[in-house]
Each structure stands twice: as structure tokens, then as C-alpha cells.
């Protein structure tokens, strides 16, 4: 049996008629950049997140960048996040001239450890960026409380967490603003690059709306130096089609994850702990094993694809050597990067594929 990590081709085959009609609508109107389709998507996605605003952008890194600028990050400011993330989270801080300050993860959740947050806050801290890694909501209550106490703003990195819930509330409205990615492999994926910023704050939304289109408040009236971070009409049309299916897809992801958990419960491996009060969007299903590369190779021999999210923590990347944080600085993130393995998980995955992959993992990793 073959078990791919995800299967976008079969998803397209299922959505083909809806997609072609949506794409045709955009082409017929020649509304290729921003326009009606983008505005409709903004309304629908804001409604999905339960936020007042959604500003559609060209990718998730741009959403993080504009989010941080909108929250007032200026050159020399410190911005706190974890090193256990995709580098885009950290790059966005650098784009603003900010200094990334890392806080280690809680090994049980893979997300920012709120217990370590307070000591990282200084006079220069302007914002904290909790990441909802793998679709699992970060522990926002203590993060928000600490941020408020120190007048620090909160930008969610929700790139992997469309529709996840923290204490019943959707991601996107859990901080001052939230950045989403619609990269094709995401739970809500465009047919190219796309992203969005969501917020309940009028001034954040206003800034982002202008900043994404060269700082223009009206055609050729530039209020400040902005960017070209606009969403394409075609991507908005694709995302609107997929948004109609996201609830069902997330439910299916969560069912698959439940089955993985049941079958892997007695295997010699660890999994992040789910808080029963929250709902992960299960962008990835990850396990931790000592011989990660050996397990991945043995799964590949059985036709099961895997991936590593992520092999190197941000502070050990060459790109951030200048921060001067050596190996050992963030032990939980470093250990996670050495041991983490993502198993196949996508809505169209069959029950047979799930049990085949899970049973293979148990055989290879052994029983406890
Ligand atoms: C956690 C995280 N942050 C940021 C990004 C950046 O998003 P994009 O690739 O759309 O720029 C991604 C996605 O790749 C991500 O997974």
C-alpha cells in the first residue's frame, strides 16, 4: 500500500467542477489582483475566525510582517517567539528591524512554554508571537495575561491552525492579530501563495489594508511607504471554494488523529498531549522517536511517506548565527527537532491507510 504525506491531486479531482467555475468567474471579470472575489473571501474568512476583520495578503510571511508592523514593532524592539518553528516566523521579526528573542517550548505541547515567558520580557519587548504549531493552539490565557501586564502585543502565528479552537474560541481572534498562511499544503491551501491577517482591532486592519498596496489610501495617494503584499483574485476564488469544505475536512483530520492515537498508545514513542478543552486543527500528526531517521527509512520501505517539521531550531540555523545562541540554549526545542516525525494525514486518507501506517509505526518503533 502507498500512503503519501498528503494528496492534493485527489482533492482537486473531487473539487474540479467547483474550482473551474470559480476560476472562470475571476477570468471573465479580469479581476486578478484584489477586487470582489478577494473582498468576499475576506468577509467569509473573518466570519469563519469570528473576527471583525480579515485583510487578504500574498502569503503568511507577509501577514506576520504586516502584523508586527501594525502592532508597532520598530527597529531595535525585541519580539519573543519559539525556535521550534518554520523560519518565516522569525524572518518577519527581522524584516521589521526587530530582534528575535527565543523562549523554549513546553515539551508536552511543542508550543511556547508560558512559564518561561515572563523572564524573557524586557523594557524593549514589543510583541510576542505564539505559534499554533501542527494546528495545536498555544496556551493563550497565560500568554495574554502576561503580555497585557507588560504592555506587550500578541500576534498569533496561525499559519498551521485554520479553525483550531482554544477554550472554544477560534484561532485568529485570540490575540491582537493573527497571521494565516494559505500555502498549498496548509489545511486551507491556495493554488499558489496566499495569506491573511485577522484582527478585531480597527487600526491594525486599517494599517494592513494600506500597507499591502504601497501605503495607498486611494489610487496613487500614498500615505506611507508600503509593500506589494496583495492577494490575487484567483487565489481568493480557490480559497472560497475550499472554505466551504474546511469544517468537514477538519473533522476528518481529527478523526484520523484519534485513530492514530488509539493505535499508537502503547508504542515506544511520544506524542504531544492534547488538552481536552481545545481542538487542534491537526495540520500535522507528529510523533517523537529516538531513531527518527531510521524509523522514517523503515516506513518509506513500506510505502509510507513522512516528513520532519522541523529538523533544525531557528537559533541553530546559519541565518540566525548572529544571535549567538549555541546548542543547548533551548534544550526542549533542540530535542524535539532531533526526534520529531510527521506521519501522513489528509482528509481523503482512507481508514485502511490510517491503520496500515499506524500498525507499521508500532512494528518499527516497538511496544512499550
Ligand atoms: C508556522 C509557520 N509560520 C509561517 C509560515 C509562513 O507562511 P508562508 O509560507 O505562506 O509565507 C508557515 C508556512 O510555511 C508556517 O508553517
How would you describe what is shown here?
It is a single chain. The protein has 368 residues and is of the alpha/beta class. 38% of the residues lie in helices and 13% in strands. Helix 5 links the parallel strand 4 and strand 5 (153-157). Helix 8 (246-264) packs parallel to helix 11. It is globular and about 65 Å long. The model has no long low-confidence stretch (mean pLDDT 98). Pyridoxal-5'-phosphate (PLP) binds at residues 59-61, 85-86, 88-89, 131, 157, 159-160, 181, 183, 195.
Describe the secondary structure blueprint for this structure.
Blueprint: H1 8-29, H2 36-49, E1 53-57, H3 60-70, E2 78-81, H4 88-95, E3 99-102, E4 125-128, H5 140-149, E5 153-157, E6 165-166, E7 169-170, E8 177-181, E9 195-199, H6 202-211, E10 216-218, E11 221-222, H7 233-243, H8 246-264, E12 285-288, H9 292-301, H10 331-339, E13 340-343, H11 351-365
Parallel strand pairs: 2-3, 2-4, 4-5, 5-8
Antiparallel strand pairs: 1-9, 6-7, 8-9, 10-11, 12-13
Helix pairs in contact: 1-7, 2-7, 3-4, 8-11
The structure holds pyridoxal-5'-phosphate.
Residues 59-61, 85-86, 88-89, 131, 157, 159-160, 181, 183, 195 line the site of pyridoxal-5'-phosphate.
Runs in which pLDDT lies below 50 for 5 or more consecutive residues are none
- How widely separated are the two ends? 26 Å
Fraction of helical residues? 25-40%
What ligand species are in this complex?
Answer: pyridoxal-5'-phosphate
What is the arithmetic mean of pLDDT? 98
Strand content: 5-15%
Radius of gyration, taken over Cα atoms and rounded to an integer in Å = 20 Å
DSSP helical segment count? 11
Global morphology:
globular
Question: Helix-strand pattern, N to C?
Answer: HHEHEHEEHEEEEEHEEHHEHHEH
Physical arrangement of strands within the biggest beta sheet: 1-9-8-5-4-2-3
Number of strands: 13
Biggest sheet descriptor? 7 strands, mixed
Which structural class do the helices and strands define?
A: alpha/beta
Amino acid at each position: 500500500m502507498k500512503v503519501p504525506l498528503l494528496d492534493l491531486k485527489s482533492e482537486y479531482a473531487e473539487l474540479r467542477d467547483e474550482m473551474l467555475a470559480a476560476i472562470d468567474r475571476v477570468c471573465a471579470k479580469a479581476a486578478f489582483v484584489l477586487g470582489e472575489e478577494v473582498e468576499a473571501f475576506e468577509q467569509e474568512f473573518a466570519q469563519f475566525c469570528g473576527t471583525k476583520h480579515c485583510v487578504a495578503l500574498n502569503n503568511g510571511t507577509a501577514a506576520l510582517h504586516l502584523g508586527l508592523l501594525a502592532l508597532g514593532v520598530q527597529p531595535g524592539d525585541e519580539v519573543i517567539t519559539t525556535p521550534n518553528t518554520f523560519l518565516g516566523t522569525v524572518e518577519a521579526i527581522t524584516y521589521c528591524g526587530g530582534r528575535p528573542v527565543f523562549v523554549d517550548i513546553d515539551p508536552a505541547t511543542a508550543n511556547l512554554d508560558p512559564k518561561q515567558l515572563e523572564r524573557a520580557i524586557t523594557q524593549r519587548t514589543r510583541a510576542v508571537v505564539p505559534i499554533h504549531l501542527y494546528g495545536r493552539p498555544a496556551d493563550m490565557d497565560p500568554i495574554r495575561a502576561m503580555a497585557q501586564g507588560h504592555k506587550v502585543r500578541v500576534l498569533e502565528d496561525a499559519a498551521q491552525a485554520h479553525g483550531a479552537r482554544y477554550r472554544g474560541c477560534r484561532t485568529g481572534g485570540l490575540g491582537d492579530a493573527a497571521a494565516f498562511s494559505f500555502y498549498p499544503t496548509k489545511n486551507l491551501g491556495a493554488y499558489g501563495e496566499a495569506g491573511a491577517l485577522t484582527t478585531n482591532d480597527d487600526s491594525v486592519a486599517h494599517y494592513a489594508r494600506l500597507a499591502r498596496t504601497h501605503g495607498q489610501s486611494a489610487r496613487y495617494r500614498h500615505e506611507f511607504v508600503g509593500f506589494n503584499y496583495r492577494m490575487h483574485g484567483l487565489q481568493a476564488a480557490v480559497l472560497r471554494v475550499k472554505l466551504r469544505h474546511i469544517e468537514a475536512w477538519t473533522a476528518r483530520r481529527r478523526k484520523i488523529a484519534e485513530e492514530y492515537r488509539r493505535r499508537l498508545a502503547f508504542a515506544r514513542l511520544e506524542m504531544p498531549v492534547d488538552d481536552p478543552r481545545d481542538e487542534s486543527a491537526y495540520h500535522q500528526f507528529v510523533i517523537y522517536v529516538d531513531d527518527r531517521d531510521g524509523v522514517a527509512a523503515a516506513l518509506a520501505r513500506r510505502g509510507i511517506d513522512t516528513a520532519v517539521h522541523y529538523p533544525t531550531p531557528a537559533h541553530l540555523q546559519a541565518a540566525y548565527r548572529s544571535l549567538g545562541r549555541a546548542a543547548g540554549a533551548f534544550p526542549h526545542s533542540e530535542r524535539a527537532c532531533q526526534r520529531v516525525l510527521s506521519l501522513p494525514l489528509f482528509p481523503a486518507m482512507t481508514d485502511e491507510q490510517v491503520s496500515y501506517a499506524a500498525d507499521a509505526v508500532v512494528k518499527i518503533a516497538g511496544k512499550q
